[in-house]
Each structure stands twice: as C-alpha cells, then as structure tokens.
Amino acid sequence: MENNCFVCSKTPAKTIIAKEVTVYCCTNCGTQWQWPLKEEKEYEDIYTEKYYKEIWGWRKEKDRQIGKSKFATSKNFIKHLHNHKKGGKVLDIGCGLGYLLSFLQQDNYEYDVYGVELSGFARNISEERMGKGRVFENLEELKKKRMQFDAILLFDSMEHIPNQDKLLKDIDVLLAPKGKVLVIMPAADSFAAKIMGKQWIEYKKDHVLFYTKKALKQQLEKYNFRIKYMRSCWKTVTLVYLASYLSVFRIPIMSTILEATIKLFPEFIQNIPISIPIGQMMVVFERKEYKNNNYCGQVFLS
Fold first, then answer.
1. CATH number at residue 47
2. Within 13 Å of residue 278, how many CA atoms lie on the same side as its CB?
3. Are 238 and 262 in contact (CB under 8 A)?
4. Whole-prediction pTM
5. What is the pLDDT of residues 76-104, one digit of tens each?
6. How many domains does the chain have?
7. N or C: which end of the chain has fewer CB within 10 A?
8. Could you tell me if residue 229 is inside a domain?
9. Cis link prior to 36 (omega < 30° from 0)?
C-alpha cells in the first residue's frame, strides 16, 4: 500500500521510532503521521474512562479541581477567541469532558456552544455538564441538522483526527459566512520537536499526525481556506496536571523528579498555572472570499 504524504503526495523517506509510535516524516513538506492511518472509529478504544483518569487525573470528586486546571489551560485560548469572535454560535471539535464548553457558556460574550466528541465516556460527562442537545458524536449529525457556526475550535484535537481531508470538507460545510476556525496543535517544525527528537512529548498513540507551519498552510489552501494568524505558543498547565501527564508519557529524569517533588507542595501551588514550551502552534484560518463575496461553503448533504 502506498504511504504518500497526505499533504504534498510525496513518498516519505524518514522514519521516526518513538517510544509509543512509529511516525513517517515527509522530507518534502515535513508533515508527520502514523502509518497506516486508521479510520477514526478504530481509535475510539483509546479514549476510555481510563484515558481521562490516567492522563488528566480525572475523578468525579476531583472534577472541580481539574476544572481549575483546565481553565488555566484554556484562558489564553478564550482570550484569543475574543479577538476574532465576540459571541455567536461556537463548535468545539473534540470537546473532551466539556470544560472549554462550560467556560464559554459562562463567558461575558454569551457564546451559544456545542461540542463533538468521539469518546462515549467523555461525551456523557460533557452532556451532564452542558445539558441535552449540546454534545454530538460526530460532525455528520450537525450537517444533517444544517447547523452553522461563527467559530469552530480545535483545541488540542486536530492532531487526533486521521482523515484531515474529510475534516476540512466538513468544516467548510459547517462554517458560517465570515466564520473563523481557531486551532492549537503540536508543530512538527517547532524548536521543542527538533531538540527532543524521538523523545518529543507529543509522540503518543492518540496523536496520529503533525503539520509543520508550511504544510498546514499548503493543506488549508487546497480547501479554499487562508491563514489569518499563525504563531508558536507555549502550553499553560498546572503542576498537578503536568505530573499526571508525565507519569503516563514518561520523559527520562523529568518524570522522576516531578513525581518525587509534586507531593511536597501544598495544593494551591500544585494548581498554579505555568507555561511550558512543548512545541505547539496557534492558528486562525478562514474561508477565502470569492470576488463576488458570495458565500462559498459547500452544499449541505441531505
């Protein structure tokens, strides 16, 4: 079976064998992906209750504490959303346990929020948090309802979605005229990725692909999108979240030190937000306008 790059169609010549996954790297545009890329449903068994308990440290009795951590992580992203869309209908693709949705629902700009989540466990938690009719299993359900959104968010989720062609086609259908798409995801050409090599913290089984900034621009242009804003960014986390994460995705020395010291700190210090350079990028893109300025989204499927 061919394993050509899904962005530029070149055959990759470099293989990166990381601890959890083997990744192909296109030597032309720098795009990276697991091979073979499976259908999205085949990754569903990763996102079980165990996944959220191990990586996020989630427990029902700790939901409030985890929520504080997630707010610290989401705060800059929400602030960035304010710069591009104040209010309106918002879709969070890969909404997880629904924290970002709940923060936006309480925001001063009164966003009308919806989410999509593959994981049945996470979807149930999100629905408990948001109420019925707010969280869906897939984008097809929203397309059938002919819904459109002023902003579509992919916050640490685009790298989890194997079929990028379908994703971008669906976004074109669901994005309202003058709508914006906001993304935070790992960047394959980041300084952290280059320095850490196969030990890069983003190499794990649920991260199925990575773009370079150049490759993402090339990919978006194929689907009539243009980048409005792009920059490298740091990830904001709390110490308790970082310790939980690194206990699963271990980095030599760093994981051991954090495990040994985290319990020495009082809870308020464990929950102080800190920013770390792990190699992410923030991107805002929008649909290109035709000369007649008519709406250029694709026709809804019946």
1. 3.40.50.150
2. 19
3. no
4. 0.90
5. 899 999 999 999 999 999 999 999 999 99
6. 1
7. N
8. yes
9. yes
